[in-house]
Amino acid sequence: MNPYALIPLSSFVFNALLLTYVFAANPRSRASHAFVLFAGICAMWALGDYLAWSFADHPGVMYLIKSEIVFWMSAAFACVHFVFVLLRKRRNFMYYILLYATMVCIVIGLSTDLIITGYEKTTWGVTATFGKLYFCIILLLNMPTTIYGIYLMIAGHMQSRDPIVKKQLLYLSIGSIVMYCAAVFTNVIVNAFLKLPSVPALGSSLLIIQSGFIFLAVVRYNFLTIGIRGAAQELFTQMQEAVCLVDYTGKIADANESARRFFSMPADAKELKVTDVFPATVIPEKEYVNLEIEVGDAGRQRLGLLSSSSLTENGYAFGKLYIIRDVTAIRREEFERAQLEDQVRRSQSAKMESIGQLAGGIAHDFNNMLGAIAGYANMIKLRSKNGNAKIGSYATKILSASRRAADLTGKLLAFARRGSSEMQAMNLHTTIEEVVGLLHHSIDKRIAISTDLQAEYCTALGDHSQLENAFLNIGLNARDAMPNGGQLLFATTNAQLDAEQAKVIEPSGSAGFYIVLTIADTGCGMSKETCSRIFEPFFTTKEKGKGTGLGLASVYGTLQNHKGLIRVDSETARGTTFSIYLPAVDSTPEPPPDETVRLPKTTGTILLVDDEEMVLDSCVEMLKELGFSVHAFQNGNLAASFYAEHAAAIDFVILDLNMPEISGQDTLRKIRAVDAHAKVLIASGYYSRNDVEELKNGGAVHFLQKPYTLKQLSSATSKVFLAS
Asked: Terminus-to-terminus CA distance in the chain, angstroms?
């Protein structure tokens, strides 16, 4: 065995071990595959040299030398291919030129003697004798290919900002340059030109130099991560988020294109610091998660969410990473959507207000007519006690019909927020339990009613009757939504709402501490379109004759009258949840009035003022029936003038609010101007809670809702006499 053959053999073994190690370390990487191809070709080149030197006397040695030339040409291109993959470069025109040129030269080398004409023995083994095209191949193929590969490595080293990547490429380029220069020196200059047979052609043997540098790159810096780092660099460049790398001095070392656009940084900007670009709210020493920042002037304002973290190595911070997500478009869309929603809510509120005014006006006129009907029916009933019983029964039916009609207008007035309210501190849990008790006796037993009254503060200022009717209305609607049974829950909690949260529920809502009543059913639910209309008067999804469409409209009006809020959440086939918000008060509910009080006085002189003739006449008849002497006027000015002359003889005044020429409020002021302590009973079918508060402050004693019965009128006049 030729001992000199151990030189190429060692190169073969080293390359074989290196390619095995690399492939085992990362078998799925394209860079690994490209390196295995390159190192495998180099190993076969060295193996060919080893066999040619070992079997110099064998007749087939010419074929070994030819195969060695094939691997030598292939190795140059395999190196270029490996660098392309390693640096994630796109295959370009140069790549394909070198590929096709290598293939052509391999064919020429195998099929002709134009490259290798023969061989001669030397001290080391054998060496090829060169043909006519050998140096052409060297100059036109091998040198450009090898130099191009080395150029790519050096260019990658110069362009990279990553210190680890720079070191990886430095090792690879140094190894390739040293190996190539040594091969040219021994193979071409010494062997071909100087004709020194004592110095062998060490091309394949010198591969061990390149392999040694590659081994250092693998062991010390894992050069295969260049692909990953290249991907990271590409990701950094193409990220939609703005990314800034800042060194320990606060200077921006690098910024991607998104960051330059976000901060309007010029492309050639240098020596910029965090404080030059970021708003003053960003403190370089702090770390942030989704801090909202605003940059730019009024004409080009941009909003972003900033997150930052420290960059460390071996426990020492050497810089910071800032990532900014541009949310300008998102915030603009949110703002526009909020504006649109607010417009819709305001439009809906205005629509409800206008419908409410219409409903209130209708209810006012209707109540006046009902008042006259009920009044005369009462008188007929009284007169028929000792007369025709059949006429008395007719009067009873008229009164019953008028009460039903009054209930209907009561719902209209509640929707219009114009009904009278006896506001007092009340325990909402007590009202809910009463409603639940009523529902237990009036709905299908297959509907399970449960309560979960958790509100610690459950006292509200309200009208017990109105709120009870509102809760009952919702409960009965839930019953109708569960014809086959289900579950109905009444639950309470407390909630503190700020102004923004309150306005989301209702545009007129205000901040405060609320009792939240949740009424939830498991019924058929409603579509979004139905949900948007349920509080409109006369809107109903029930069959004709089974609903007036005023139930939920009156609920809405009642809650408006109580400064409450209501929200509906529903989905078809998933049930409905009403959330009712009533302002909580720090007060103790008043005990029920003593029903055993005896009224000391039942007669006197009354000044009656009402612009409706029928109401005036019927009320006069009822007051006379109660034993009162009555002076009636349809005009407030005339009534005030009469009172000024006969104030001492008048016990109290019954006054309508809505009158032409002069309103009830102005008439009251004129009467109070004569006697500041004049007793006044307001009788009206249409007024707001604000009107009530104003009249109370003005000295009105009591309120009587039209239409009223003889019994209600008697009770109201008695209370006026009791007032001091």
From this structure: 137
Phi then psi for 315, rounded to 5 degrees?
85, -5
3-state secondary structure of 681: strand
In whole angstroms, what is the distance from residue 552 CA to residue 526 CA?
14
Beta bridge partners of 251: 273
Residue pair 466/421 in contact by the 8 Å Cβ criterion: yes
Query: Whose CA is closest to 402, among 414, 392, 391, 410?
Result: 410
Sequence-ordered strand ranges (E) for 379-538: 424-427, 447-453, 459-462, 486-497, 512-521
Q: 513, 508, 511, 510: which is closest to 495 by C-alpha?
A: 513
Q: Say if residue 216 is exposed, middle or buried (CB neighbours under 10 Å; 0-12, 13-18, 19+).
A: middle
Residue range 524-551, pLDDT digits in tens = 988 888 888 887 766 676 665 455 445 6
Which residues, at least 6 apart from 9, have a Cβ–Cβ distance to it below 8 Å? 46, 47, 50
Q: What is the CA radius of gyration of the chain?
A: 50
Three-point CA angle 644, 646, 647, nearest 5°? 70
pLDDT in tens, 695-724: 666 666 678 877 777 888 888 888 887 765
| Tokens encoding 711 | 């019994």
Q: How far is 65 from 45, CA to CA, in rounded Å?
A: 10
Alpha carbons 474 and 414: distance in angstroms, whole number = 15
Residue 355, Cβ density class (10 Å: 0-12 exposed, 13-18 middle, ≥19 buried): middle
Distance, in Å, from the CA atom of 387 to the CA atom of 381, rounded to the nearest integer, reads 10
Is-contact 77 99, C-beta < 8 A? Answer: yes
Which residues of the chain, if any, have pLDDT below 50?
226-228, 545, 548-549, 592-601
